[in-house]
Amino acid sequence: MKVTINGRTYEAIEGQTIYDLAMQNGIDIPVLCHHPALEPIGACRICAVEVEGLKTLQTACTTKVFEGMKIHTATDRVTNARKTNLSLLLKVHPNDCMTCDANGNCKLQELAYEYNIKIPSQEVQLRGLPLDDADPFIVRDLNKCIQCQLCVRVCDEIENMSIYSMVERGYETLPQPAFGTPLKESECVFCGQCATVCPVGAIVEKPAIGKARWWEVDKVTTTCPYCGVGCQIDVYVDKRKKEVVRVYGSGINPDVNDGVATCVKGKFGLDFVNDPARLKKPLIKRNGEFTEVSWQEALDYTANGLKAVITKYGSESVGVLSSAKCTNEENYLMQKFARAVLKTPNVDHCARLCHASTVAGLARAFGSGAMTNNLKDILQAQVILVTGSNTTEAHPVYGSRIKKAVRNGAKLIVSDPRKIELVKYATIWLRQRPGTDVALFNGLLHVIIKENLVDWPFISNRTVGFEELKKIIGKYTPEYVE
Ligand code: SF4
Ligand code: SF4
Ligand code: SF4
């Protein structure tokens, strides 16, 4: 459809909002309560725009475009409305930018500057709430809250924990855990996403307080080193000290972690990078003592050493050992170095410890030792069977997606001897004895075949060895398995 913004016509698609269309075409509409990963709610009204033929201003983030729509984003009426809304927010907001940790990354500050809003200090009426710093990772100063509900929504829609609700009325309406307890007394998992999305300094990361101002950090986009979800993260590094100050979920690949999600490990566990005991320079052992050397010297020494061993004993006498803390790409380079440069097949990896069996099993069952689908497909699943995985602990961001899939209507079956967290969300908890997984799965296959629940076209087109399988599982009746 054709939609006009500020006199220029653009192609739009059914269901698109005014805000999305404007952003797609480089037209700036300010927002406070909007985040691309979350459902829009039009609470802050800063994105108000004029639509010809409609009496009242419309919120661009929630209003869908229609054929022939004519929108104006910067008329006097629009600007005045934005100024009024900003003034109302600033009349209850502490102007302590000098010591606020959000200074330089505060959307309210940016917009107050852009719209030149000045509120005389005698007109500011603060809420007078105490600082809430009882929690290990998060400090909340709800005097600064602008009621955008981003924290409530990210906890609900992405983390699926719903720790906060907006409580009370009017200017007192604020996000609170049930009964106003500290977060540590709630079921909060300290994923820190509420601090990531808070557009002002109302929720901030405790470990980052006082470390560096926003203009004193560099943003480094990378992959979280902790687990196989591979969350994309933006690490903010102090330019002078080269220390990690804080971590945000990155928008670089929303399919992985929704452009915002982290767990407590990725968000608050990267401070090991700052540990003074870490090796930052290569060492060579001389006369029994490790001595610091330059990278060039270390590389020459290693290359010469490898060459000497290979010349004397052959290329299979050397091997490389890589790490799960590296990215897929780094590990790929490592095996390429081994196979193409050193010409050795000896490549190993610390993930062998826990994944030798899973990779072999997956490769035999599905033809590849990796996931057969992407990280988002699970949201479409009707049934999810979790076994051998305490997902919310080991791969927390993916665990949250399983919870979301359950909310979407998927049935969850957990087969695990332990009462893992996902059991709370499960329709069925199968508590098999340790060591009986194979019997359990053979039992499931037995019932699937006996009750003719088989997807025959899939079996005939995509699988081999079904008749042999049938013979093996013949004896695995439910009674036998039990
Ligand atoms: S840290 Fe995570 S779980 Fe806790 S309140 Fe914030 S978003 Fe919710
Ligand atoms: S605490 Fe921050 S994110 Fe939550 S409603 Fe207030 S301003 Fe918005
Ligand atoms: S789920 Fe947590 S540990 Fe795993 S990659 Fe994401 S942030 Fe890192």
Indicate the proportion of strand residues.
Answer: 15-25%
Per CATH, the class of the largest domain reads Alpha Beta
Give unreliable regions as ranges: none
CATH fold node name of the largest domain? Alpha-Beta Plaits
Overall number of structural domains: 4
Tell me, what's the shape?
globular
Secondary-structure arrangement, i.e. CATH architecture of the largest domain: 2-Layer Sandwich
With helices defined by DSSP (H or I, 4 residues minimum), what is the helix count? 16
> Which molecules are bound besides the chains?
iron/sulfur cluster
The neighbouring-strand order within the major sheet is: 2-1-5-3-4
Structure classification:
alpha/beta
Q: What is the typical, i.e. mean, pLDDT?
A: 95
Number of strands: 19
Distance between the termini: 61 Å
Radius of gyration computed on alpha carbons: 28 Å
**Largest pleated sheet:** 5 strands, mixed
User: Helical amount among residues, as a percent range?
Assistant: 25-40%
